[in-house]
Amino acid sequence: MYMNNDKVMEIDDCRLELENRIRNLLWTISGDYSLNMKVDIPLYLRSRAIALYDGIKQGALARFFDKDMLGLYLVKKVYCQADEEKLTVIAQLCVEEAIGEKICQERPGVRKMQRQACEDILDQEFEELPPYQDILGRLRIAVLRDRLGNGSSHVEDRLKKYRDMVSEAGNARDTMELIRIIDKLYNMIADPDFEKQHGNLEHVLSVTLEELAEQDWKDFLSEELYEEGLESYIEQMAARITDMEDASVTDEMEKNRQSRHKVTVITEEALEKAYTYVELNFGKSYLDPAQEKRMNYLMCRDIHRDCSLYFTEGILKNPVKRNYQYEYAVRLKNRNIHLYHDKHRIVKSNIASLSELLRKTLVNKNEKQEIISDRGKIIPSRLWRVGRSSEADLFRRELKSDASDFVVDVLIDASGSQMSRQGEVALQAYIISEALSNVKIPHRVMSFCTFWDYTILHRFREYDDPKEANENIFNYVTSSNNRDGLAIKTVGYGLLQRPEEKKILIVLSDGKPYDVIVNRPNAKNPQPYMGRYAVNDTATEVRHLRNQGVSVLGVFAGKEQDLATEKKIFGKDFAYIRDIANFSRIVGKYLIKQLDSDS
User: Fold this and answer.
1) Is the CB of residue 79 less than 8 Å from the CB of residue 206?
2) Cβ(461)–Cβ(470) below 8 Å
3) More confident position, 530 or 507
4) Given this model, what pLDDT does residue 3 score?
5) pTM of the prediction?
6) Contacts for 349-352 with beta carbons within 8 Å, 24 or more apart?
7) Whole-angstrom Cα distance, residue 457 to residue 62?
8) CA dist 362 to 301, 399, 466, 542, 591, Å?
């Protein structure tokens, strides 16, 4: 049973909500908000009911029994040469019996989910009846059918005694009683000679932690848990006993899904290595893992679904260590500063000119205006109109624009194609930032580039930072590629969270979205982002922001032959700066237009 393509995309896009929902069910049922669990998204893709019911049972097991004690027993039994797979299946059947009815009685709404989970397991795993000699397989079917038939399903004679023993688990008063039932059932079904060869339950329970610690558990653990050893194996066993489904079926369905949708699966170790390398080259992230995960969930969708975001204040502000990349960034910063000193008169003139233009406009916005209106302060001389005219404008109302109701984002293309213009672009951003600071308009300045699967967003100053923060713009460094659509979407999201009514985004770019990832092993390798495909995506994000009330200006800082692309992306609202001496006049004209606008 497979979900259709739309359903798979919908569930992938809602991953965080799914994790939160399953965890909330676990916490609600158990009443213990300290419990943690690894949410099984592939299982959810296989069956929503199975995944949610497993989550509920984890919470219920922790509430009604001592799951750690139960997990430790299972590990000791395996240590004493029990078959792990058969022991786990028997424990799963008994745990289901021990808690399944209890949670349905307490929460009647769970019963529907329980029934659907049982139906899905039967449909997906038992198209054919297991062989006659597969007692455990046939016993699983009997228990599942009992759930669906309220205990009245027919079962072959040789299985009745086993099913009755599983049913006894429903009356278990404590964890030790449940363990005795599981142990007895294992010795009857899986290994009738177990007690003779390896000892009874008392012998199993007498195994010490020291003895267990000496065992090499690697054959029983997934690779990422090797270093944890015994403790992880106990937790793993405790987690598995609330499942009823066959995990191998889930794995097979997930592989098929990935094959159909070309999903690239990266190990946690590979992801960690890639993240560490990004950290070394671009500096530490200023977001905590939860914030970073949330932003990736919100932004990296559709054509950007195999991408990741990385938020940093740069390697010069937050380095991991002083490596080659750090020294390279120092040299480029010094080069930017040298160009500033070389052109400081032009830059100062631009800052002063743009500041004055903005200041005059804002002063005018603060001037009071009086208009005739249908509300406000009454005008006695117009009262004669009452009953004689259809116009109800009998009042005088005072209007005053709020000059502080503006916020600006400046987003700079920091891809390698900007390297030859790096200093000039830094000066443009610095001029805008200084002028906005002079008139006290809150603004943020960031750059973007892509590195492997990551779109790097480098923050130079935050909206309400002091003017001194503008100096950070000289830390601007160019490298790698650029995924403009994702960067504009992400920065626009932050801008839309601001309380100011009038929002402006200025994008300094060369009009060439280009992100072609080399087929690097252990990377997600997003679909190449170039040509019309990339231009259309970037233009779509610009239109999307404009539709939400954000004014977007493209400041072109590229080669003249790429002007047509810039026009496709930004429409009529773009500026081509051939000479930095004209920068304040051209950009100022646009900003003033936006400040004067009442829309």
Assistant:
1) no
2) yes
3) 507
4) 42
5) 0.55
6) 349/581, 349/584, 350/431, 350/580, 350/581, 350/583, 350/584, 351/431, 351/434, 351/435, 351/438, 351/584
7) 43
8) 39, 15, 20, 26, 11
Count of C-beta atoms within a 10 Å radius of residue 482: 29
Backbone dihedral region for residue 199 (phi beyond 0: left; psi -120 to 50: alpha; all else: beta) = left
**CA-based nearest residue to 243, from 128, 106, 109, 88:** 88
Query: Please, which pLDDT band fits residue 20 given cuts at 50, 70 and 90?
Result: low
Q: What is the pLDDT of residues 376-397, one digit of tens each?
A: 777 777 766 676 766 667 677 6
How many angstroms separate the CA atoms of 139 and 92, rounded? 12
Using alpha carbons only, what angle is made at residue 472 by residues 471 and 476, rounded to the nearest 5 degrees? 120
pLDDT digits 0-9 by tens, 269-324: 666 777 888 998 899 999 999 999 999 999 998 889 889 999 999 999 999 988 87
Confidence band (pLDDT; 50, 70, 90) for 88?
A: very high
Strand partners, 591: none
Q: Which residues pair with 556 in a beta bridge?
A: 509, 576
3-state DSSP percent of the chain in helix, strand and coil, to 5: 60, 10, 30
The per-residue b/e assignment along 427-439, b for 16 or more CB within 10 angstroms, e otherwise, is: bbbbbbbbbbbbb
Residues 153 and 156: their CA atoms lie apart, in Å, by 10
Nearest alpha-carbon partner for 281 in 436, 428, 450: 450
Percent of the chain at pLDDT exceeding 70? 80
- φ, ψ for residue 302 (rounded to 5)? 50, -120
**430 with 347: CB under 8 angstroms?**
yes
Burial code (b: 16+ CB inside 10 Å, e: under 16) for 550-565 equals: bbbbbbbbbeeeeeeb
User: What CA–CA distance (Å, rounded) separates 406 from 500?
Assistant: 6
Contact 350, 584 (CB under 8 A): yes
